[in-house]
Amino acid sequence: MNDEEVIWRKLLIDGDGIGDDRRLNILLKTYLKWCNTKYTDPLESQKAMEKMLVHLNLCEHAMKKSQAVSRMNVEEMLMYDNMSSEIDHNITNTKTEIDRAKEELKKAKTIRRNRMEYDVLAKLIIQHPPRTETAKRLDDLKDELQALKMTKNEINQKLDKRRKQLHVLMSALNDLTDSLDDNDSMSEDMSYETFDDEDLDILTRKDDVEEPMSD
After folding, report:
1. Label partner for 11 (CA 20 to 30 A): which of 49, 86, 129, 202?
2. Is residue 41 within 8 Å of residue 26, measured between CB atoms?
3. How far apart are the C-alpha atoms of 128 and 117, rounded to whole Å?
4. Name one GO cellular component term (predicted).
């Protein structure tokens, strides 16, 4: 209900309004009537005065009630303001705690990640031998490699020596083979030179006769 509706409602109800306004208007009219009336009977004047006192008490009671309500409204407004301030303060504290919790969560995640990385590195370190053992193993491998190189050089020298000896032997064998071939050729020529054609013919016939006999 807006202000215009309230005013129209007050004007429509007997022209005196409603509630406290009505009481004040009635009290004012009664007082004016009492002032303008010349009472011949003091009793009627007393009754009119008592009636005005009743309305005055009602108006006073309504005023005290309105003051109490107003004071209560002010107190409630103060209470609501305090509650609002407290709520705002709690909201601010809650936001601060949330931010702090986020930072702590972030730190916790960082610590957890670092711990996981540390565990992985620790496992890798455990899997690998210490530096001293690695250095000793490396020295042993170097010594072993040097020994293998020396052995390889010795084997290569022996192979070169055997290769040279084999080459000399093959050369001598080839020379011997050539010499034997030459001697065989000379022997064959000399054997055939001691026989003439007649002797060769006799030998051939002899061979032919011996073959059937053997059969």
Report:
1. 49
2. no
3. 17
4. THO complex part of transcription export complex
Asked if the structure places residue 112 within a domain, the reply is: no
Q: Is residue 135 a part of any domain in this protein?
A: no
Which residue, 29, 49, 64, sits at the end of a domain?
Answer: 64
Backbone CA torsion sign across 47, 48, 53, 54: positive
Residue 10 contacts residue 18 (beta carbons within 8 Å): yes
Half-sphere exposure of 133 (CA within 13 A, CB side): 4
Q: Which tokens go with 170?
A: 């093959």
Q: What is the C-alpha separation between 30 and 24, in angstroms, rounded?
A: 10
Element (H, E) at 2: none
pTM, two decimal places = 0.37
Domain that holds residue 177: 158-215
Q: Per residue in 160-210, pLDDT tens?
A: 888 888 888 888 888 888 778 776 666 555 554 554 555 556 555 555 544
CA dist 24 and 17 (Å) reads 10
